[in-house]
Amino acid sequence: MSSRSSPADVMSLRETESGYVSGSGSESSLPEIYFTKPHLAFLNRQLQFLEPQEILRWCITSLPGLYQTTAFGLTGLVTLDMLSKMKIPRPQMVDLIFLDTLHHFSETLALVDRVRSRYPLVSLHIYKPDGVDTADEFARKHGDKLWETNDELYDWVAKVEPAQRAYRELQVAAVLTGRRRSQGGKRGDLDVIEVDEAGLIKVNPLANWSFQQVQDYIKLNDVPYNELLDHGYKSIGDWHSTQPTKVGEDERAGRWKGQQKTECGIHNPRSKFAHYLREQEAKKQEEALHQALDSLEVSS
Question: HSE on the CB side for 73, CA within 13 Å?
């Protein structure tokens, strides 16, 4: 008795015979999304001359597993509004990821509700530090003012770990960010598209825009924004590390004022935090060893 071949078998046979792979064929023969360095350089040369809307259209048609990470700053709000005007079919709509550090301004949290009301079709995924839901719970677990006692640990538990958990659970392959060259610091030579150490694709669709261009778009399109911007703030993060900026200062001058720091952690190399965590574990083991030796001396 002869057995009939399944459609999948036929497709696999055709791929083997032709030497090509189709998206509807065997997934095992398809590589993960990646860019070679020459390809990445080529894309950046092409994308830098496009308007943000054109970059966003390219992302939607080219990058599966695409999300927007946002703390609802002005640039992220512009991106969100541009996407909402593209009439994208629901399966291709770009969901939002918001990292609730539990230390945002009340004005930021109020803005989240207004954004949900303005853009009801957009799904919002909120991630908090692992195992806690409030600032009080955070303090009980990690100690008071962790951002002062151990700034790197704060970045890890409040931002980096929740971000990595979101990427893993949502199967994120690419993210839209709100970073721009005009924000200064490490962002001064920002490319439109980047790939981090873990292979995550980061796209900065408004990399070429100035703060004034962003602000003009917000006003022209009546986009909801953080009320703190009317009180001297330009870049808004956690309440404990954000201040208003003065006339003539860089846009992000109000972040971590007086510190040698320009990024919150999620845009720093992941290897930095892997090294940090190894150091912390080594310290714990050393302390445990000293305690064990001390207890032996006391008992003897």
Answer: 24
